[in-house]
Q: What sequence folds into this?
């Protein structure tokens, strides 16, 4: 599949790769340069492959609050919230951003790879009065991220970017939205619009000073922040508590999918926790699915890993048994048949200087 | 695309500069462009014996690891420590400061099996 920006990517020198069934740019000029642009200036990402679901109708808030872990009832209109869709076992189907557009009116931004599964799950559970629409094919989206994103915003929209994170502005009702959200740890916004307007928006963002960035930099940026990637760090067999996302689970809500499983888990000891690991020495880049050892015994494998462009050392995440999750715990990670020392560290890896 | 005339080339995108019985080995401009930002390089240990086509070194980009093959058989006599400290030299100067190792050539006849610049240019469609 191709986003409406496919031709723009080729024209901009994008190196195209397959991602979740989509032909997406992994980089334009280079991952390191694009990563740096986002940390120091402003980067522009095509996120049109992500899904857009609209939920409305009487009871929409209550219905979503019964399926998602975070609390939409408590979310003011015009705000966005990171939240998680669970299966009956408490495992993660998807993590997503919910925009509250009205009292009973929502836009959900979901992962590209999970659009069919999420939509099927939501349709299976839909109740009378609630209207669920998967309109992913009609919409494109851009992420504009970095310390200079507010300047790009002003050039694009002739008004200041909301200073607050997670604000939602409907630029045109039901057509065009911006939210001060992102996946990089930088200030910035995401801009959802009809697919037909994507090419003009892409060009306008570049003209306003944003540098095109591919999925490669998107991955290094998010991992420095310990933001999980569904399919790598999140799975149907791991709960959000195991993934360290308890902040986005409101166990005080009276009822939601798999609440009992999470309550039981919280009352006992988590079987595993997603830990942040940093390499101690100069090592080859650590990557996903590398074996992790404690005291010479294999205990798990990395779910994500990369040589951090901002920090200059290897970083990874892995589900470790709770006995090995304390900050400072030493482990070894096997890279191409050799083991290298790593240490459990506090999340996130990267903090703004 | 830079393809110096004075070098011999392996199909697997290494170059070798022959001076007497010693060859200096690196990767081509085309290879570094395909690999993208190189963030890790591990030249072989001095004294290591390799056969033509053996894995002699590894370079890694943000996204992938790539084996570097010995274009000829011989013994490693020098390794470029500068690329360990600054792997980006492989991107910025692949035919110069980004060289990987030097090898004492055991079988000079193997050089004939490598490509000249014209043949390599044809291989990569440059």
A:
């Amino acid at each position: 599949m191709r986003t409406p920006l496919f031709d723009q990517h080729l024209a901009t020198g994008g190196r195209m790769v397959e991602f979740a069934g989509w032909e997406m740019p992994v980089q334009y000029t280079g991952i390191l340069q694009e990563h740096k642009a986002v940390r120091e200036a402003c980067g522009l990402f095509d996120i049109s492959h992500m899904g857009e679901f609209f939920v409305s109708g009487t009871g929409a808030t209550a219905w979503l609050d019964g399926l998602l872990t975070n609390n939409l009832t408590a979310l003011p209109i015009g705000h966005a919230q990171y939240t998680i869709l669970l299966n009956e076992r408490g495992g993660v189907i998807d993590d997503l951003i919910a925009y509250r557009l009205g009292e009973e009116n929502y836009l959900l931004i979901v992962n590209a790879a999970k659009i069919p599964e999420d939509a099927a799950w939501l349709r299976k559970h839909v109740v009378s009065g609630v209207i669920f629409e998967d309109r992913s094919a009609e919409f494109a989206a851009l992420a504009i991220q970095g310390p200079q994103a507010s300047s790009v915003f002003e050039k694009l929209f002739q008004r200041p970017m909301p200073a607050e994170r997670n604000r939602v502005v409907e630029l045109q009702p039901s057509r065009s939205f911006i939210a001060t959200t992102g996946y990089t740890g930088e200030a910035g916004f995401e801009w959802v619009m009809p697919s037909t307007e994507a090419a003009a928006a892409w060009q306008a963002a570049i003209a306003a000073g944003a540098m095109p960035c591919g999925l490669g930099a998107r991955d290094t940026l998010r991992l420095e922040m310990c933001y999980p990637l569904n399919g790598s760090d999140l799975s149907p067999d791991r709960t959000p508590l195991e993934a360290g996302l308890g902040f986005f689970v409101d166990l005080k809500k009276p009822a939601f999918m798999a609440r009992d499983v999470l309550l039981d888990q919280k009352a006992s000891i988590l079987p595993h926790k997603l830990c942040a690991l940093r390499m101690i020495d100069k090592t080859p880049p650590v990557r996903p699915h590398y074996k992790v050892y404690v005291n010479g015994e294999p205990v798990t494998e990395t779910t994500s890993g990369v040589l951090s462009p901002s920090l200059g050392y290897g970083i990874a995440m892995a589900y470790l048994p709770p006995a090995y999750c304390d900050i400072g715990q030493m482990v070894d990670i096997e890279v191409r048949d050799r083991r290298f020392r790593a240490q459990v560290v506090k999340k996130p890896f990267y903090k703004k200087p | 695309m830079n393809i110096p005339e004075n070098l011999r080339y392996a199909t697997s995108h290494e170059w070798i500069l022959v001076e007497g019985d010693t060859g200096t080995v690196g990767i081509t401009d085309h290879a570094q462009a395909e690999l993208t930002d190189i963030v890790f390089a591990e030249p072989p240990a001095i004294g290591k014996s390799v056969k033509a086509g053996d894995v002699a070194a590894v370079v890694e980009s943000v996204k992938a690891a790539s084996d570097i093959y010995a274009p000829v058989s011989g013994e490693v006599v020098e390794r470029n420590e500068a690329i360990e400290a600054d792997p980006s030299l492989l991107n910025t100067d692949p035919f110069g400061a980004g060289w990987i190792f030097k090898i004492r050539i055991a079988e000079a006849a193997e050089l004939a099996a490598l490509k000249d610049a014209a043949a390599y240019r044809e291989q990569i469609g440059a």
Observations:
- Residues 6-48+137-224 of chain A form a domain with the Gyrase A; domain 2 fold (CATH 3.30.1360.120).
- The two ends of chain A are 39 Å apart (CA to CA).
- The mean pLDDT of chain A is 97.
- Residues 115-125 of chain A form the longest helix (11 residues).
